[in-house]
From TrEMBL:
Name of a matching Pfam family: DUF3375
Official protein name in the record: DUF3375 domain-containing protein
Species this protein is from: Selenomonas ruminantium
InterPro entries assigned to the protein according to its UniProt record, in alphabetical order: DUF3375 (IPR021804)
């Protein structure tokens, strides 16, 4: 039976429905709640591990918004997170890092959410570009694996003739004819965006595959019954077993290719050229790939960190003291199981088990007495009309007035020399004079261009007010020529 047919058999699908976390999410009563929250928090902003308190606050606000539409939910935000991170659900992975607890979305949960996202009707479905991709991949495999010299020379000769003909046409006409029309450009751009996003989604499954490899090695080490020297020889002979696996070799090739400086420069220049094409101007804001390289690096770095942690765990498993503790635990479990088998059918009379320690008992009178909470008394005196004789009203006439036209002129001066400028660059030339009020004025100007705010980049703005140096931290703000009022 072909492998695909095996995966679509009744028995396999029945087991998936009962055991797979993705299917469990789709058939849950609160699937809309969980899927919407996972997309809003993890998949949409392309975030990985989130600190527990931050995720708890985000879920609290999300439940509050949903409550206004659907009514009260049965559980608290903390209960939902603990439940979703439980192994019986498997939608979130809870782990400790540097003394703090974090949550990350699991690969099955991401697959379920992305499948739900794919159900919406697409206005444009490209088929020609995908067909060409299939042909190009097959041709690449055939050409790069063919060792026949005549075939290779014939292929290179045909390419040489094609290039020579194009060079001749350009020299005669002085014009370059576009090889793709607007529809083909749009189709290929959307396909590139979908593939680039899919790479980010694959990283969670890559991490899970690495963990599965580590669990297999750990199981082999724990069950090892021969000498420690032979165990070390086995580990050293299979050194770096994770990176030498097929998954590991593919990931390391991706990482090396991504970190080459010439590849980074080429990708950056190509994206700038593609996104400036007229055919994609209507979709570039919604499907921008400008930050995809940074997102790839962050996701791949998270996998690298996981690899380091797994390698450290593997080394710890080889440690003699740890092996001794693991084996003693397994021996205790086997001892309990054997005694349970011996007692089977013997009834419950007589001595069943001895306990070396006594249970701790806390009597009612040993507990602390109930202390009623203190109630805060609020005084609300009646407001009376004043005559102004009890104080000065000069502060009313000393309000700070920010001239927005002046701020706009500051930005326009710098935009006259370049296409875009950040708020930090504007303040370096025109420092703040009115403090936070003037800074808010710049924010109001920037709000006219929604793309001017970069959420995942922060700027530290230092300014002086009343003889003191103050620091403001905000999202990176970019003013662009032709956007808003500029």
């Amino acid at each position: 039976m072909p492998k695909k047919n095996k995966y679509m058999s009744y028995e396999h699908l029945r087991d998936l429905r009962q055991n797979h976390a993705a299917w469990r999410l789709l058939r849950a009563d609160y699937a809309p709640l969980a899927a919407a929250f996972f997309y809003r928090t993890f998949i949409g902003p392309k975030r990985r591990g989130i600190e527990a308190q931050e995720l708890l606050e985000a879920l609290d606000m999300f439940l509050y918004d949903c409550t206004r539409q659907e009514g009260e939910f049965a559980r608290s935000p903390k209960d939902y997170l603990e439940m979703w991170a439980d192994s019986s659900y498997g939608w979130l992975r809870k782990y400790e890092y540097h003394g703090d607890w974090y949550y990350d979305l699991t690969a099955p949960a991401q697959k379920a959410v992305e499948w739900l996202l794919s159900l919406h009707k697409q206005d444009f479905i490209g088929t020609e570009s995908r067909l060409r991709t299939v042909f190009n991949l097959l041709h690449e495999i055939a050409q790069e694996t063919d060792t026949n010299a005549e075939h290779r020379l014939a292929y290179l000769t045909s390419q040489q003739k094609k290039i020579a003909a194009e060079i001749k046409a350009i020299e005669e006409t002085g014009e370059v004819r576009p090889q793709l029309d607007d529809v083909q450009v749009k189709e290929r751009f959307l396909q590139a965006e979908a593939t680039a996003t899919a790479i980010l989604a694959d990283f969670r499954e890559v991490e899970e595959n690495f963990r599965e490899l580590t669990r297999q090695v750990q199981a082999d080490v724990v069950k090892w019954t021969r000498g420690k020297g032979e165990l070390l020889e086995k580990i050293f002979s299979e050194s770096d077993i994770i990176r030498k696996s097929e998954q590991g070799r593919s990931f390391m090739a991706f990482w090396r290719f991504l970190m080459l400086s010439q590849q980074q420069d080429d990708l950056r220049e190509t994206l700038q050229q593609v996104e400036s094409a007229e055919a994609v101007q209507g979709i570039v804001q919604e499907h921008s790939l400008r930050d995809i390289h940074r997102e790839w690096v962050q996701a791949a770095a998270a996998v690298q960190k996981t690899l380091g942690q797994l390698s450290a765990q593997l080394r710890r498993y080889v440690d003699e003291d740890y092996l001794r503790e693991e084996r003693s635990i397994y021996q205790l479990i086997q001892s309990i199981e054997s005694k349970a088998v011996d007692r089977r059918g013997a009834g419950t009379s007589g001595l069943v088990m001895e306990m070396d320690t006594l249970p701790k008992v806390q009597l009612p009178m040993e507990r602390r007495l109930y202390a009623p909470p203190k109630k805060t008394r609020l005084e609300s005196p009646e407001l009376t009309e004043g005559d102004g004789s009890s104080g000065s009203i000069a502060a009313i006439f000393e309000q700070v007035v920010v001239d927005k036209e002046k701020l706009k002129a500051h930005v326009a001066d710098l935009l006259a020399e370049r296409d875009e400028v950040t708020l930090a660059e504007v303040l370096a030339v025109h420092p703040l004079e009115l403090g936070l009020s003037e800074l808010l004025g710049y924010l109001v100007l920037a709000s006219r261009d929604a793309a001017g705010f970069t959420e995942d980049r922060l700027e530290r703005l230092v300014f002086e007010r009343d003889g003191r140096k103050l620091l403001a931290v905000c999202e990176q703000i970019t003013f662009r020529k032709g956007a808003g009022a500029f």
